[in-house]
Design brief:
Largest sheet: 8 strands, mixed
Helix content: 25-40%
Structural class: alpha+beta
Distance between the termini: 51 Å
Shape: elongated
Strand content: 15-25%
Number of domains: 2
Length: 425
């Protein structure tokens, strides 16, 4: 969430950021509503001051044994006006806060301006494999009998996954490998959070109110299945004040993730491309504001290490102002190459939200100024996939396929298979 004062003082900056995002929000109406709120609040404060002064005068009259009836009568009218204004201020505050939650973050000035067509490839690693008669992961999974898409649809619905045998083991080895890497080499503390969160948590990280139709909700409890571990992990410190000495804080978490993919009509939904439930290892950071962009580059490097150790060719893409997410100020996508589909698959997004999420979730830290005063500020939050399945699974199957239809197991995953190096039917 942007600071209301910042929006008022930097109206053209915010307006320009909306234009860069290709969004049409009526900021003038927002300012008009806030002007009415401010005017009503000033009147309310003036009436409250008059009421306090009248109370003092009534007390004085009573002490002097004078008749306070006239003053009390006028007070009743003031009290009635105060009640009416309190209701009016509350209504304007509700409108202003509701609009405030729909205003996206300011894109960082390093982002290309435009839609997804101007996203910028900043670097790549590995050579995309050219495999004669390459099979897709769908064909490989069916041939090896490691994923059963048909029975998954029978159990639940289309675009859910049923892993079997070595498919299930490969999935499990992937998230265990990533957790082991991030905790032992990258300095993250492992978290295992709930897979259901409340509305305040979803609002804190920016999924609500904008993306509610894309979420799975339990209507009886108003709880949501998490779309990513970012939500529960970031909200660990909601409404808390951290000490500066505690920062930076690095957390990593494996969770299943649930997304309705309400806007996926017309997109490629075959196989593992766009599923409603998938596994992911998430990395979340709470950092000092002055360090957040250095921390973003480290975050991206942590995700890249996963792909390098898996031996998957990939590229790092800087997202444009029109493609960056609602809450992010800057985001890099990591895309792994899948030779069977001949496509680049997004397997990680690494974002700096600056203070946007922290302001919504009220996450602050306490620091000491140069003159030894204690002040509180909002932390900066970051998160990134480290990395996401199921597309990483698709990329592994397609990159490591053999002419006989078997699939080699990446070397770093073989210890999770007790040394087995190949998936066969």
């Amino acid at each position: 969430m942007l600071d209301l004062k910042f929006i008022r003082e930097n109206f053209e900056v915010v307006k320009d950021s909306l234009k860069k995002r290709n969004l049409n929000l009526d900021l003038n109406n927002f300012i008009e509503m806030d002007d009415k709120r401010r005017k009503a609040l000033l009147e309310l404060e003036d009436l409250r001051a008059r009421k306090n002064k009248a109370n003092e005068e009534i007390t004085k009259l009573l002490k002097e044994k004078s008749d306070p009836k006239e003053k009390i009568a006028s007070m009743k009218d003031t009290a009635s006006k105060i009640g009416s204004l309190e209701k009016e201020v509350k209504e304007y505050e509700s409108i202003v806060n509701r609009i405030l939650l729909t205003i996206p973050n300011i894109p960082h000035n390093s982002l290309p301006v435009g839609d997804a067509s101007v996203n910028k490839v900043v670097r790549s690693w590995g050579e995309p494999k050219k495999i004669a008669h390459a099979r897709s992961h769908i064909e490989l999974a069916e041939h090896l009998d490691i994923i059963d898409f048909t029975r998954a649809a029978k159990l639940t619905a289309s675009n859910f996954i049923l892993y079997k045998g070595d498919g299930a083991r490969l999935e499990r080895s992937l998230y265990n490998f990533m957790l082991d890497l991030h905790t032992s080499k990258h300095g993250y503390t492992e978290i295992f959070p709930p897979f259901l969160v409340n509305r305040a948590s979803m609002t804190g990280t920016g999924q609500l109110p904008k993306l509610e139709e894309d979420m799975y909700r339990l209507k009886d409890d108003d709880l949501f299945l998490i779309p990513t571990a970012e939500v529960p992990v970031t909200n660990i410190f909601r409404d808390e004040i951290l000490n500066e000495e505690e920062l930076p804080i690095y957390y990593t978490a494996y969770t299943a993730c649930f997304r309705r993919e309400a806007g996926s009509y017309g997109k490629d939904t075959r196989g593992l491309m766009r599923v409603h439930q998938f596994d992911k290892v998430e990395m979340v950071k709470f950092v000092r504001p002055e360090n957040s962009y250095d921390e973003l580059e480290k975050l991206v490097n942590n995700a890249e290490t996963v792909l390098q150790l898996l031996g998957l060719p990939y590229r790092v893409v800087l997202l444009s102002t029109g493609d960056v997410s609602f809450a992010a100020s800057k985001c890099y996508d990591l895309e792994a190459y899948a030779p069977g589909l001949d496509k680049w698959l997004e397997v990680s997004s690494c974002s700096n939200f600056e203070s946007f999420q922290a302001r919504r979730a009220n996450i602050k830290y306490r620091r000491q100024t140069a003159d030894r005063k204690q002040v509180t500020e909002y932390v900066h939050t970051l998160n990134g996939s480290g990395v996401a399945l199921a597309r990483t699974m698709a990329a592994i199957l397609e990159n490591y396929q053999q002419p006989d239809g078997t699939v080699f197991i990446p070397e770093v995953l073989q210890p999770y298979f007790n040394g087995k190096n190949r998936i066969t039917r």
